[in-house]
Amino acid sequence: MRTGITDGTTSTTIGRGETVPTEPSAKAVADHGQEEAAVDVAALLERGRTLATPVLRAAVDRLAPPMDTVAAYHFGWIDAEGRPSDGDGGKAVRPALALLSAEAAGAAPEVGVPGAVAVELVHNFSLLHDDLMDGDEQRRHRDTVWKVHGPAQAILVGDALFALANEVLLELDTVEAGRAARRLTTATRALIDGQAQDISYEHRERVTVEECLEMEGNKTGALLACAVSIGAVLGGADDRTADTLEKYGYHLGLAFQAVDDLLGIWGDPESTGKQTWSDLRQRKKSLPVVAALAAGGEASEELGRLLAADAKSNDFENFSEAEFAHRAALIEQAGGREWTAQEARRQHTIALQAIESVAMPESVRAQLAALADFVVVRKR
Questions:
Q1: What is the CATH number of the domain that holds 139?
Q2: pLDDT digits over 188-244, tens only?
Q3: Which CDD domains does the protein's record reference (predicted)?
Q4: Residues 280-318: pLDDT tens digits?
Q5: Is residue 319 assigned to a domain?
Q6: Cβ partners under 8 Å of residue 366, min gap 6
Q7: Considering the entire predicted model, what is its pTM?
Q8: Helix (H) / strand (E) containing 75
Q9: Dihedral of the CA atoms 223, 228, 233, 235 (nearest 10)?
């Protein structure tokens, strides 16, 4: 099988006839230069938080008790005892993209705020449900909602956030709001498809690289694609412009998820807020695992045998740290770690190429490029 990549990247065969991409071409890297270096990414992220958070909090306040309190805990606004908190509310990449999206269409960043809030609500709906389905007990360095408030509240609050997302957009009562809501609904359905694929893959011995990329494109790429187009739609951009911005966001999402996959195995718990070997504990068929299994060779074959046995084990939760470390070492020896890092860089390059064809202020283009760089080079 071939990936069908025709953007000037190099590729390599990693096993069983699968040809997969490796590094972006030297020309693709050189074309983008270093002009983004002066952009203050922290300021862009903070602007997204500053403009979106008051509207987000007002939306959450509409929820009936105790859902309003549970949601406030999830967002880090209060602690488990209900006291005000300044907990980590996440990276705020999606709100930042939504505001830049509005500016790309020539509108003020404030025009993108309802879109930023709607996307953030959908994102957090997915986190609440994902944490429960995956059994994750920690997010952003503290106990997850289902652990503190119970599974029923995690489900209810997640559902409520999804409903609020559409409400925030549709109450604008404009043609643009209707277009934005359609894009958000389509992205949400793709996100749910991706989560369903992710769960089903945990119970399969083999998943192809193409299947994994499709799953991650749904699970992560679709909502980031929506984030970087929704502000433009609210600002009056035509569908061609919005679609091109979505392409940037989709490939940025794949880069984002590739980095997440690396952090899910080798990330520092102090930075990620999750357990060591988090994705291995959950039997996730993430990119490093899938690439390693497809690579062939001694390490790949041993990894395949171990993971096949793991899938049938009733004692998986009692595995020692050494057993998880051994699996991680096999993934690295088989080339899964390096391939995934290269894939993140490749997707980053495609994302940057997409926005070259969109007419927008050059300062906005540089900021979008800087945010793409931030996504690929991070520790959490």
A1: 1.10.600.10
A2: 999 999 999 988 887 787 899 999 999 999 999 999 999 999 999 999 999 999 999
A3: Trans_IPPS_HT
A4: 988 889 999 999 999 999 999 999 999 888 877 767 667
A5: yes
A6: 35, 36, 38, 39
A7: 0.85
A8: helix 67-75
A9: 140
